[in-house]
Design a protein that fits this description.
Largest sheet of chain A: 7 strands, mixed
CATH architecture of the largest domain in chain A: 4-Layer Sandwich
Number of strands of chain A: 18
CATH superfamily of the largest domain in chain A: Ribonuclease Z/Hydroxyacylglutathione hydrolase-like
Order of helices and strands of chain A: EEEHEHHEHEEEEEHHEEHEEHEHHEHEE
Structural class of chain A: alpha/beta
Oligomer: homodimer
Strand order of the largest sheet of chain A: 6-5-4-3-2-1-18
Strand content of chain A: 25-35%
Low-confidence stretches of chain A: none
Shape of chain A: globular
Largest interface: A-B, 31 and 31 residues
């Protein structure tokens, strides 16, 4: 049951010869969620062998070109690949105009439906839910309305021990109850504690995508305890005035959010083209938050499953 | 004085992990003309170190996404690079909608002007001229209005021999006349034939971009004697029914046009994603036209200068 992030683009607005603009794919149990879609995203998807057919949901943080100009090409490629499944695209209301423009001028032979789902970037709210995850918006502070996305895997049920099924001749209805945490009472009236029958469930894992935004303290509260945090780090902290002016963050600020949130791992990206080598950015972030990794095209950031402890 | 083509993309509608969608750059005396602009063109420009600031004219053959979806990102990047010079974009009237959409939704801080120049794909006509070249439209046959572009370098003036300037004490007005082909008459009434005073000018070189189009016989007449011909070759000839249906060409058909036109060199591209290896396409084209080269990302196709012969 995977829960892993693949970075497709790590540049800010100006792509470089090494870095594509923003796009991430979160693999949740082999369902792929595309987060932002800068120019060339479809090329990166192909390069890193991510199956187009597994992408049914696209989340767009904000309407700057480096986060959205890959959408038209992706729509067309889905069609050429014979897509039939509906596609759901979440984003600011302005995104509707782009989708409508595409449909009007390039989508006359489209074989599948594109559903636009407007996102309110002003509040934290669940905008998507399925059996495995929920997705929440995270209000960000940028020059245009911008929302991050918090993906939370649902906690599984407790796992019943096979030998206990035999030992106590458990029925299906017994098993359903026990998985949810009930104790078992034998026909003889003996109470078998749940902890003896089961092992704890897997913890629900979480991923927060926070780009683009200036340093925004309250964000840390909203993503408390997140396993994997991607936070933009466009500049080094010596450029923090420029960061503030352009409403971006520095590596140090990204790390501060990670520390305050008590994140497991921080991935920084959205690097300005002025930094050919991002070693200094990493070092800067690590002074505040040790477990910082760089966003790198094609790199997979896996969050392994771990079980909860018995209470 | 360069006259060379750089291919930035060689795929058809579905890009592959090796091939970007259509985009070419023609370098004419260090002025760069961008021809088509598929998704990722700006990434390729950067990769192959082509100076953005030298691009002032963009020619778009037709309004399919794989020829045009790189424009919005390029417009934004020009801006981020501080462009001040006007940009001229030539294409079908539908392209105006795309430019207007960009300007309305993404261009509010644009520092330079974009001029749209409508192109009539029904006739061959000069749509651009400067001191070095003319650009003509080439009617093509495709599912939507499609025009190729024929770039013709102007023939230079005759080169005057330095020793003759001294020998005959030529004035500036003498030199101007002689460069244009006049003989010289000395104060003593002696006629010095031009051929004795000058060497012939460089030939004007030419490049024809023909994509997308089905096999279209009349095209060959329109590009007679072209030095470098790029002709799309989406399929192998065994798929010629599919080529006809989708209004594309086969490698054999591209080579037939090259032979009938008496082209110097043929470059084939716009390969269908079904062909991972294009050796068969090259071999097929070469049965009809020996001097066929494959379009390859980053490859430069140079046309060296040669002088005309004295008549």
């Amino acid at each position: 049951m995977s829960f892993s992030l693949t970075v497709l683009g790590s540049s800010s607005a100006l792509p470089t010869s090494k870095r594509f603009p923003s796009a991430h794919v979160l693999n949740v149990h082999e369902h792929f969620f595309l987060i932002d879609c800068g120019e060339g995203t479809q090329i990166q998807l192909r390069k890193y062998k991510i199956k187009f057919s597994r992408i049914n949901h696209v989340f767009i943080s904000h309407m700057h070109g480096d986060h959205v100009f890959g959408l038209p090409g992706l729509f067309s490629t889905f069609n050429l690949l014979g897509r039939k499944n509906d596609l759901y695209v979440y984003g600011n209301i302005q995104l509707k105009h782009l989708i409508n423009f595409y449909l009007e001028h390039f989508g006359n032979d489209l074989l599948y439906k594109i559903h636009f789902k407007p996102v309110n970037n002003k509040r934290q709210a669940v905008i998507y839910e399925d059996k495995n995850i929920t997705v929440e918006t995270l209000p960000l502070k940028h020059r245009v309305p911008s929302a991050g996305f918090l993906f939370r895997e649902k906690e599984g049920e407790r796992n019943i021990l096979k030998e206990m099924i035999e030992k106590y001749q458990l029925s299906i209805s017994d098993i359903v109850k026990i998985k949810k945490g009930s104790d078992h009472i034998t026909p003889e009236g003996l109470v078998i504690p749940n902890a003896q029958l089961t092992i704890p469930p897997y913890k629900g894992r979480s991923y927060a995508y926070c780009s683009d935004t200036m340093f925004y303290h309250r964000l840390a509260e909203r993503i408390k305890g997140v396993d994997l945090l991607y936070h933009e780090a466009t500049f080094l902290d010596k450029e923090k005035k420029l960061a503030r002016l352009t409403m971006h963050s520095t590596a140090l600020q990204a790390a501060t959010i990670a520390r305050e949130a008590g994140a497991g791992t921080l991935v920084i990206g959205h690097f300005s083209s002025r930094y050919d080598d991002i070693t200094d950015m990493l070092n800067e972030a690590r002074t505040v938050f040790g477990n910082t990794l760089p966003a790198e095209e094609g790199r997979v950031y896996d969050i392994p499953r771990t079980r909860k402890q018995n209470e």
